[in-house]
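Re: that backbone. Tokens:
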């Protein structure tokens, strides 16, 4: 795909092992469980459903987010490009420095920073480069530039290790042009390595596809980047891998590691007897209902010959919406959907994999049946809504088995992921406006119910939501222009723009956000990663 480019146990969503549907319901209201400690943002887009919503934001409201009361407060300098979403923990005890609210940022220069989220002071900063190493070069691809280090959003577990752990994947190379992909587990209070880490990412999987040897496809670290946000699920860290542009040989890897030992737990390749099929997702993390993984696989081999159960005969799932079981300590594809013209879409690089997956809360349809749905979109401008218990598989003649498909609804391709709030899904396709689609009886409106005045050029934008329960909803989105612009909209009507960072002249300008950039909103502040800093916005007088 060439992309132009200490809590009660019931509050710990990644450790719940009851039925997946119940888990997702709990997850979507899990912020209520954290009130005794405050709100954390410890994973990409706030939760493992990847909804992008913080429902415990009581400071920022539609009445005070305006250019008179709200603006840029701080710029937190870093040593490289920030492609990952910043993360946030409230009330962290830092040795010798007291207790702080902490924002964590990672850079393509292979550095990790822990900042005081309120004052901007550096609490600690470490490099994960090995002796004599540098970050990777661009591998002749301009998508991650000028270097490749830490691209993906980390994940944090406050209950892991003696003080809590932040998990990170970093790429580097040595003077002999050997390339490395490593999983690091860092003490979240000091940045020190834990559990004997880091570990080098190595893998093989039965197959005869790209870069196969002796009946196994082999993971070559130089051919891949880990740009999908990390997922922590039932004590396993899941990583998903993309190529550098469409430079072969490459295939579609998902690899899991035990969070306490860093031992590899499971490996899945989604195109083991073919090629391509990477997991791009515009930096979005693999989504989960608490048991299964959901992702959008990019252009690549799809076996149009199906077995008796309707699955690709050789196990190749290029350009497909995929469900992966994680039970019994192994990953297995248990369901999928791909469109009838999947082969031609892959051949023309018009695939699903440019967007990210969002799992929706349970909804009742017109017949009173409770539906458990997921939504995704890619380059073909269509919205795909799947029933997670029966996704639709493949039919070469039509897409009638999918729960709902809305062709052309977005008016532009998706190189970003949507957000969910209060019965609406928000998309920002490239070259179009920020769009709100609403649900009624578990079906999505076929046209937007509201849209922004501003147009978002390539790559569009990944919105995030702040709200207090179902009230005071605000949609935040970054416009990627020469000087990036932070926008805030009334979540009930995107025609009502509350604020943007151009309204006060240059006062709130913050430079250039990366095209993976996703705003993070918590505790009255908005954090945006840029090419050389974290920009912090909030109320100007508090």
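Recovered sequence:
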């Amino acid at each position: 795909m060439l992309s132009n480019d200490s809590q009660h146990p019931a509050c710990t969503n990644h450790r719940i092992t009851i039925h997946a549907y119940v888990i997702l319901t709990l997850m979507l209201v899990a912020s209520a469980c954290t009130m005794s400690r405050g709100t954390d943002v410890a994973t990409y887009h706030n939760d493992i459903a990847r909804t992008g919503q913080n429902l415990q934001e009581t400071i920022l409201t539609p009445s005070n987010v305006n250019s008179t009361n709200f603006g840029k407060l701080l710029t937190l300098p870093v040593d490289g490009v920030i492609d990952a979403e910043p993360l946030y923990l409230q009330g962290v005890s830092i040795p010798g420095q007291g207790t702080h609210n902490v924002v964590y940022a990672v850079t393509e220069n292979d550095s990790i920073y822990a900042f005081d989220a309120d004052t901007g002071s550096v609490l600690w900063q470490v490099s994960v480069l090995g002796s004599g190493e540098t970050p990777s070069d661009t591998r002749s691809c301009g998508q991650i530039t000028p270097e490749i280090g830490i691209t993906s959003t980390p994940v944090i577990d406050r209950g892991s290790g003696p003080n809590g752990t932040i998990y990170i994947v970093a790429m580097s190379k040595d003077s002999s042009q050997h390339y490395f992909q490593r999983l690091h587990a860092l003490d979240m209070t000091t940045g020190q390595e834990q559990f004997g880490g880091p570990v080098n990412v190595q893998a093989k999987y039965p197959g005869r596809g790209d870069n196969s040897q002796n009946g196994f496809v082999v993971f070559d670290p130089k051919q891949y980047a880990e740009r999908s946000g990390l997922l922590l699920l039932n004590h396993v860290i899941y990583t998903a891998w993309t190529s550098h542009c469409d430079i072969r040989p490459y295939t579609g890897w998902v690899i899991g590691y035990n969070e306490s030992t860093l031992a590899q737990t499971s490996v899945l390749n989604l195109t083991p007897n073919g090629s391509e099929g990477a997991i791009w997702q515009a930096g979005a993390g693999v989504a989960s209902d608490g048991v299964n993984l959901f992702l959008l696989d990019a252009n690549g081999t799809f076996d149009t010959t199906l077995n008796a159960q309707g699955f690709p005969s050789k196990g190749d799932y290029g350009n497909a919406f995929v469900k992966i079981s994680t039970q019994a300590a192994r990953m297995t594809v248990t369901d999928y959907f791909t469109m009838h013209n999947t082969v031609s879409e892959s051949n023309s690089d018009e695939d699903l994999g440019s967007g990210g997956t969002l799992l929706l809360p349970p909804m009742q349809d017109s017949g009173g049946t409770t539906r458990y749905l997921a939504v995704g979109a890619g380059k073909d401008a269509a919205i795909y809504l799947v029933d997670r218990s029966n996704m639709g598989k493949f039919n070469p003649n039509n897409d009638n088995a999918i729960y709902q498909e809305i062709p052309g609804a977005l008016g532009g391709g998706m190189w970003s992921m949507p957000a969910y709030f209060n019965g609406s899904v928000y998309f920002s396709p490239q070259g179009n406006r920020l769009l709100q689609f609403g649900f009624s009886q578990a079906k999505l409106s076929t046209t937007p119910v509201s849209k922004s005045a501003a147009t978002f050029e390539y790559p569009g934008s990944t919105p995030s939501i702040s709200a207090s329960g179902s009230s005071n909803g605000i949609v935040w989105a970054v416009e990627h222009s020469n000087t990036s612009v932070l926008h805030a909209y009334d979540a009930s009507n995107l025609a009502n723009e509350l604020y943007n960072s151009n309204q006060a002249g240059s006062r709130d300008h913050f430079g250039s956000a990366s095209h993976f950039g996703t705003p993070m909103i918590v505790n009255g502040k908005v954090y945006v990663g840029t090419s050389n800093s974290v920009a912090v916005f909030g109320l100007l007088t508090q």
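Residues 20-28 form the longest helix (9 residues). The longest strand covers residues 98-106.
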